[in-house]
Structure formats: C-alpha cells, structure tokens
Amino acid sequence: MSYLVTALYGVVFSLTLPACFVGGVLVYLVTWPFDRNRLWMHTYVSLWGAFYMRVWPGWRVRVEGRERVPEGACILVANHQSAADIFAVLSLLRQFKFVSKGSLFSLPLVGWLMWMAGYVAVERGRPRSMQEMLERCRVWLRRGVPVLLFPEGGYAPEGTRLPFKRGPFRLALEEQVPLVPVVLEGTTAVMVGDGPWMGARAKVCVRVLPPLPVESLGSDEGVLAERVRALYVEALAGDLLLPDDASLARPGSSSRGTTRMPRAG
Which of 253, 235, 197, 212 is nearest to 54 (CA)? Predict the structure, then answer.
C-alpha cells in the first residue's frame, strides 16, 4: 500500500506544483510593492502546504491552539522527525518564516517559492551559515515577523528527542521575544525522515503549547533550552488523542481559534 500511496501522491504533487508556482509568482509580483514582509506569499504557500497534508484521504490532521501564537515577533520551536513536518507547521495558518536546509532552496519551483516567501536557509555544519541564519532571523523579528526553527537540527528517531541546539534560545534572549513551543505528532506515519515511502494512514496533530513570555525566559540559553526540551518530553509522553469523530483542521478552521492571515506586528 505504501508504494501505491507514494506513487499517487507523486503524481498529484507533480501535476499541481506547476500551478502552485505560477500562482505564487503572480502573488509575489502583485504584492511586492506594498508587502515587504511577504505576508501574502506566506499565506499562499501555507494554503498549498495545508492542501498537500490533506490530499491523501487516509491522512488526518488536527491543529490545536493556533490562537496561542502571539501577535508580532516571537520564536516558534518545533520538534523534527520527518520531511512532512514542514507541511504540518504550515497548517497552522499563521505568519512566520521557517528555517530550512539550504539544499531545498536550489530545488526547481519548490525552492523558488521558498525564496519568494522569504524563508531562511542554513547549511548544517557550517558555523558561518549558522551565523548568517541567525542574523536573517533577527531581521524578520525586528520587522515584527515570527520565525520558526527546529532546535534539534535534524530528524529525531521516532519516540526520542535529540539535544536542542542553543541558537533559537540565544536568539529569544537577545531579541527579547516570546518562545512558542509547537509539538508535532504523527508525521512519521506520513513519511519517515526524507522518505521516499509514504504511509497509507496517519493521524497528525500540530499542538501549540502556551507561550513562554519574555519575563519568564531567564538569562541562560542552556537552561532555557533544557527547560523547553523538558516540555516536549512531557507533551510527547502521552498518547496522541485524535478520535474518529474529531473535527479535521482545514484551511480556515481549527479545533480552537480562527484564521487571521496575513498579519505580523
């Protein structure tokens, strides 16, 4: 069944991506004169990302707590297990610029859309690239735009947590912005790591935990990183609750909150 799902998904993705790209170019050109933060581009990409997470009928997605994402600058941090995580976090339908590995930006159509939306590239293992990534994140934060990072820096094996890198937490302390933990569950049932094989059935939950306000962050990035990591360990220790009759999160809907895009600051 996995082979069939992968093949059919590949066909749908290949057929729809050119239309997605053409639409993205039009959105970029029309909004560029007045939308320097590329909020409308991110909205457009988010809607496509939410679509791709729901294109297979065996995948069920629920978003909890999207109303907890603060207005204006903040740092969202999410656990990382699968290439499907990006589509999952886009289902939040909230404004942010996510950080992704630089190789994705060189992909035809996909990478060009990421560039037009203003997402941030990083080359793992290159200290200079890491510093450039943090500086680019600072620019977005100072413009009032949230940024989303995966502090594990790579895919964690299912059921485990990698050590959290300190960059996102140092950034929060230096820029004095809230931290928002986002817990992803079930994305490995869609795809393990970079795939390529996809599962026929998946229950995915994107859960926004209560934000950590600036006054509660302390002053030590290492302590803060471990504190937030403990929140993930606790949140992921329980079972994923997604009953058969649960309402699905679709563009413009949620089990809590409403869509408020585009906005920043």
Answer: 253
Cα 18 to Cα 10: distance, rounded to the nearest angstrom? 13
What pTM did the predictor assign? Answer: 0.86
What number of other Cβ atoms are within 10 A of residue 246's Cβ? 13
Spatial contact of 140 and 36, defined as CB atoms under 8 Å apart: no
What's the one-letter identity of residue 109?
L
> Is residue 257 helix, strand or coil?
coil
Supply the DSSP string of 69-115, one letter for each residue: SPSSS-EEEE---BTTHHHHHHTT----EEEEEGGGGGSTTHHHHHH
**What's the CA gap between 13 and 102, in Å, rounded?**
21
- Convert the pLDDT of each residue in 17-65 to its tens digit: 999 999 999 999 999 999 999 999 999 999 999 999 999 999 999 999 9
Among residues 236, 130, 221, 138, which one has the least CA distance to residue 181?
236
Give residue 60's identity as a one-letter amino acid code: R
User: What's the rounded Cα separation, in Å, for the pair 94 and 43?
Assistant: 8
Q: Choose among 80, 18, 88, 109: nearest CA to 46.
A: 88
Helix (H) or strand (E) holding 47: helix 39-52
Burial 137-170 (b: 16+ CB within 10 A, else e): beebbeebbbbbbbbbbebbeeeebbebbbbbbb
